[in-house]
């Protein structure tokens, strides 16, 4: 593994190894205290962040590494100077680049132009760090994930794509329930269906809430993306039937509720569900650090 840009490039063995390594780092942090000793990581952020920035910064410190954070005050990527120049210059000093960007093409160019590992901390197409943390949380609660059932309800987006790829690689059955016109990217769907078939998994897409069926976990995301100026009343009118509530959880038999945060109680999920014992949102949030540390150790340790 040279970079970590998307879960789709991982084999089943590689994904399971990352999950197992994350478990070990979480259980025995002192054993990895010097895993990144002498290593420096530059974080490039085009978008605001809470969980991503804090979990990477503290996580790298726990591994004995050093972080340099760069936001848009240093000039927008590709505008002040070409993305390729960012990558080649940073590669002169740093051991890795973590990039939270608007376009996947930006993180792909950083990886192709630079000479150090690049980690995709979020782009318009994928959120692989979140996905890895989510499958770590599911594995901690459900054990072997093959044939387990995960539902994503709401707006098809970058998180959905990463969950779809991960579920397909692991041989899970994933249901994506979205309003018409809000489904995941069509090319991703076709790609995921092929991967799922190869691994004994299944992908189901539907707009009918009645077709949700039995699930082990239900996952949703905000209907109000960062920078989205759509009127809230219009959003609620379209997505209202897809709110995750006690009725949906009960009918599906789902043991766990998941959300990548930030969440809007009373909008995409009710307070009764997100604050219930079935909610594992804080486990997901904590696991961002452990999952990302597993990626960093895999890419950088002893190199």
UniProtKB/TrEMBL annotation:
EC number of this enzyme: 2.1.3.3
Domain Aspartate/ornithine carbamoyltransferase Asp/Orn-binding: from-to ranges: 147-298
Enzyme class: transferase
Compartments where found: Cytoplasm
Residues bound to L-ornithine: 158, 221, 225-226
UniProt keyword Cytoplasm present: yes
Annotated keywords: Cytoplasm, Transferase
Pathway annotation from the record: Amino-acid biosynthesis; L-arginine biosynthesis; L-arginine from L-ornithine and carbamoyl phosphate: step 1/3
Binding-site list for carbamoyl phosphate: 100, 127-130, 260-261, 288
Sequence similarity: Belongs to the aspartate/ornithine carbamoyltransferase superfamily. OTCase family.
NCBIfam families listed in its UniProt record: orni_carb_tr (TIGR00658), PRK00779.1 (NF001986), PRK14805.1 (NF011380)
Name recorded for this polypeptide: Ornithine carbamoyltransferase
Record organism: Shewanella gelidii
Gene: argF
């Amino acid at each position: 593994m040279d970079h970590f840009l998307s879960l789709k490039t991982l084999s089943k063995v590689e994904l399971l190894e990352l999950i197992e390594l994350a478990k070990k780092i979480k259980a025995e942090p002192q054993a990895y205290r010097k895993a990144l000793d002498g290593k420096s990581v530059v974080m490039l952020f085009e978008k605001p962040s809470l969980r991503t920035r804090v979990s990477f910064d503290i996580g790298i410190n726990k591994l004995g590494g050093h972080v340099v954070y760069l936001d848009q005050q240093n000039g927008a990527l590709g505008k002040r100077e070409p993305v390729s120049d960012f990558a080649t210059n940073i590669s002169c000093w740093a051991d890795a680049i973590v990039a939270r960007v608007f376009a996947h093409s930006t993180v792909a160019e950083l990886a192709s132009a630079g000479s150090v590992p690049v980690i995709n901390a979020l782009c318009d197409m994928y959120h692989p760090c979140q996905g890895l943390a989510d499958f770590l949380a599911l594995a901690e609660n459900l054990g072997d994930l093959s044939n387990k059932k995960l539902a994503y309800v709401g707006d098809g987006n970058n998180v959905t794509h990463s969950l779809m790829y991960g579920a397909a690689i692991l041989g899970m059955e994933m249901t994506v329930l979205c309003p018409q016109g809000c489904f995941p990217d069509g090319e991703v769907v076709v790609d995921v269906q092929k991967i799922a078939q190869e691994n004994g998994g299944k992908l189901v897409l539907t707009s009918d809430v009645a077709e949700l069926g039995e699930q082990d976990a239900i996952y949703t995301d905000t209907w109000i993306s960062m920078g989205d100026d759509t009127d809230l009343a219009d959003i609620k009118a379209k997505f209202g039937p897809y709110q995750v509530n006690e009725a949906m959880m009960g009918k599906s038999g789902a043991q766990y509720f998941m959300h990548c945060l930030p969440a809007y109680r009373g909008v995409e999920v009710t307070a009764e569900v997100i604050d219930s014992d079935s909610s594992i949102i804080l486990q997901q949030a904590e696991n961002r650090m452990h999952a990302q540390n597993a990626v960093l150790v895999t890419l950088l340790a002893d190199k």
